[in-house]
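Bug report (template v2)

What were you trying to do?
Predict the complex of my protein with zinc ion.

What happened?
Run completed; filing so the output is reviewed.

Input:
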Amino acid sequence: MKQLDLKLLKQLTQLDAVSSFENHLAKFLITEYQKYHVTIKKDNLGNLFAYKYSLNPQAKTIMIASHMDEVGFMVVSIDQGGFIHVKDLGSHNLSSLPGTLVRMTLKNQKVLHGTILAPAPHLKSGPANEPKIGDFQFDFGFTSKEDAIKNGVTMGLMLTYDAPFQVLNQHRIISKAIDDRYGVFMGLELLKTVDKQDLPYHLVIVNTVEEEVGARGAITATHFVKPDLAIVLDASPTRDHLLDELEMGHLGKGPLVRFLDPKQILNKRLMDLQIRACTLAKVPFQFYQSMGGTDASEIQKVYQGVPVLVHGLPARSLHSATSVYDINDLEAAKKSLLMLLKIVLEYFEDEEI
Ligand SMILES: [Zn+2]
C-alpha cells in the first residue's frame, strides 16, 4: 500500500471549521475531489458530496460519511476589559481550557491569535466552583471592548484551538481536529485508491456539517443520498491512559468496532462484515463501547432506515487542542476499509426478514 499522505492530513487538521463554519474546509475539499473522477454536489445545509457512479445505473448506493466540523467556540459577548466570552460548540473538558492557545477568524477571514485566561495560582482563594463556559475570558490582547470591536470582533465569530501538527516519533502524531478530519482524510485516501476502478455500486463520499452540535447535517445528507448502506468514519477517545487492558480503546491496536453507544446499537451482520474485512486485510481491530454518538445515530433513522456501521479511529485527548493518534491505526483503518469496500455487497445477499 502506498504511504498515507501526511501532508494532506496536516492541511486538513490545520484548517479551522467549527459547526456551521465548514465552508472554508469544504472549498479546500472541492479542490481535492476535483483530482478524481467524481461528481461534486452540495445541499442547502452545507453538506458536501463526491459521487463516484457505477456503470450500472441500478447499482446499490454506498455512502461513506465523515463530519467536517471540529469542536470550538463562538463569540457571544465582549466585556469592558476587552476579553471575549464564548459559547462552546461541541463538548470540551472545561478544566483543560485555561492557558490554551486559540485563534479567531474575523469576517474578512483574517485570523487573530489569543489565549484563554489562566488566573495565576496565587490570585485564587478558596476552592474553585465548577467553571462554566461563559465565565472564561478569551484574551486576544485587546485593551477594551471598544478596541476589540475596532479590530473586527463581532458576535457569532468562530474560535478554534490554535495547535501545531507535530509528528512525535515514527508513528505518532499530535494535532487538533483529528475528530473528524480522520474521516475526511480517509475518504480522500479511499477515493485515491479506487478512483480508476469500476465499482459495482455507486460510492458517495459525504462530508457532513454540524455533527458536534447534534449530527444535524447527517439527517439532510442521508435524505439527499438515499443510501442502501452507510459507513461512518469518526474518531473516538481512548482509555489506555487508565493502564487497564480491560478498558476499551488503545492507541496502536487498530480501528474500533463500535458495538454500542447511547444512540446506536450495532447492526450485527454489518459488524460481522467489518470484522471479516479487518481479518482479511490482516489488521488488528478493537471492540469499543462509546459514551457518545456519531452521525450514525441519525443516519440509521432517516429515509426507510439505513444499515450503518462506524469504523472508528482511537485518539487520546479528543476534543482538546492536543489529540494524539497513531499512524499505524490510520494505515490499518485504510487497509480494512478498502477490504470492506470489496466485500460490502455481501450484506445484501442474505437479507434477514
Ligand atoms: Zn466526531
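What did the reviewer find?
Helices lie at 6-14, 23-33, 145-150, 178-194, 216-225, 268-280, 296-299, 327-343. The domain at 72-161 is CATH 2.40.30.40 (Elongation Factor Tu (Ef-tu); domain 3).
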